[in-house]
Amino acid sequence: MTDDILSVNIITGPLIWIVFGLSAIAFVYLLVRPPRLLWVLTAIIGLLAGALVAFGAIAVVQGFNLLGVPLALQTDAWVVATFAAIGLAVVNLWRSRWWRKVIAVLGIVLFALSGTLGINAYFGLKPTIASFFGIVIDKPIDIPKPTPTGSADPSKPVVPLYQSWQPPADMPAVGNQGTKVIPATASGFTARPAGIYVPPAGLVPNAPDLPFMLLMMGQPGSPDPQYVAKVLDEYQAKNKGLAPIVLVADQLGPDESIDPVCADTATYGNAESYIMKDVVAWARTNLRILQDPAHWTVAGYSNGGGCAFKYGAKYPQVFGNVLDISGEEYPGSEQPDTVIKQLFNGDAAAFEAQKPESILKSGITYPDTTAIFTVGGNDPAFIPEAQGASDAAKAAGWNTTYFVVPGAGHVIDAIQGGFEKGFEVLYPRLGLSAPPG
Predict the structure, then answer these.
(1) Distance between CA 437 and CA 425 in Å, rounded?
(2) Residues 304/327, Cβ–Cβ less than 8 Å
(3) pLDDT digits (tens, 9 = 90+) for 258-305
(4) 76 pairs with which residues across the strands?
(5) In terms of residue numbers, what domain contains 84?
(6) Which of 74, 257, 279, 359 has its CA 20 to 30 A from that of 171?
């Protein structure tokens, strides 16, 4: 029962429309009173006062970059409308009968809830009650176990999957999504259950070994596979059910307001060891995946994109591919002074050394790394970061693609466009489709 409630959709389901409807009824009731001049002026003052508070809040959020991303016109409109409606409700608390006061208080709650749901729907990243509160609902998934295949004969040419794989007639039409708890054996890091996506080709008897993607989402955010699954189900449908097996790991921990900056720190735990030791080891042991770096991709969105860039730069022996969607320039880029003080004990050099661009210049060699950097065309704060990351990777010898998603901001449209472009580049590279041309 609890899981059913937590799974309620708050973007497209009936709940959001019920809240909107009740808010509209409350607003009309609170607005309509005998049309005396005093009430008309009072209502106008309440609406304008609420709107002015909203503009002040927007200015503070934008001025101090409290969200880490610029606010869009849609979010500004929701904030102004919400505060204006609350202003109207507040002025109804004076010179009114008790039932109007009760409706005004309920109206304040409804208006605040409507604004929250409206902004959340615009961002599109928290579609359920569970995801809104950072809760991962445990949905265990059965996955084919790896089988010992021995060492590949280096003298024989490797036949890509798009040529060697023939799907059975009863193969599922779409991939499977679920969760897996990955023990933090080496790191001791507290993480939420990882999300997982297994494509149709990985769900049949005698499934082939498939490429592997380790994905990290943004902050705040949950290890939810639905966004990558949506795009991969489109790709696999055109490519014999073939797609990478995707493990969406939790690089943040249960408190998604905290950013461990993809590193091992005494303050927030061993986030890097969790990803690079626990998660990587679990994937190698438990998933039916190809084991070479050329078929392994580390990917991420926003906060996770900065982590993906860092790990791709630091561990080329593990990951031969990087997909960075609207990623931060480097982990901890939003509040570097605070991060240096609280997580690196004031050691600015240690903080500098963990930046991806510093790692790229540290002497590590990159024999064969392919990377895709994407960013929304309407995301001015992250465009220079994505461009700078792409340029640094190219200078280090990576085979890079830089792509601006037309019309996208920093939310669901950027994620969708980033995955689409990323898999356009990666599918031939991973042997899942024929090379272009």
Answers:
(1) 13
(2) yes
(3) 999 999 999 999 999 999 999 999 999 999 999 999 999 999 999 999
(4) none
(5) 2-123
(6) 279
E strands, 51-201, in order: 176-180, 194-198
pTM: 0.90
Do 42 and 182 have their domain in common? Answer: no
| Amino acid found at 145 | K
3-state SS track over the chain: CHHHHHCCECCCCHHHHHHHHHHHHHHHHHHCCCCCHHHHHHHHHHHHHHHHHHHHHHHHHHHCCCCCCCCCHHHHHHHHHHHHHHHHHHHCCCCCCHHHHHHHHHHHHHHHHHHHHHHHHHHCCCCEHHHHCCCCCCCECCCCCCCCCCCCCCCCCCCCHHHHCCCCCCCCCCCEEEEECCCCCCCCCCCCCEEEEECHHHCCCCCCCECEEEEECCCCCCCCCHHHHHHHHHHHHCCCCCCCEEEECCCCCCCCCCCCCCCEECCCEEHHHHHHHHHHHHHHHHCCECCCHHHEEEEEECHHHHHHHHHHHHCCCCCCEEEEECCCCCCCCCCHHHHHHHHCCCCHHHHHHCCHHHHHCCCCCCCCCEEEEEEECCCCCCHHHHHHHHHHHHHCCCEEEEEEECCCCCCHHHHHHHHHHHHHHHHHHCCCCCCCC
Tell me: do 118 and 143 sit in the same domain. Answer: no
Of 410, 233, 226, the C-alpha closest to 305 is 410
Cβ atoms of residues 295 and 430 within 8 Å: yes
Domain of residue 414, CATH code: 3.40.50.1820
Cβ-count burial 182-212 (b if 16+ within 10 Å, e if not) = bebeebebebbbbbbbbbbbbbeeebbbbbb
**Residue of 298, 207, 238, 200 lying closest to 428 (CA atoms):** 238
Q: Do 355 and 222 share a structural domain?
A: yes
Question: Which DSSP string do the residues of 78-114 spell out, in sequence order?
Answer: HHHHHHHHHHHHHHTTSS--HHHHHHHHHHHHHHHHH
What are the tens digits of pLDDT across the range 198-237?
999 999 999 999 999 999 999 888 999 999 999 999 999 9
> Are residue 143 and residue 105 in the same domain, yes or no?
no
Domain count, the chain: 2
CA end-to-end span of the chain = 52
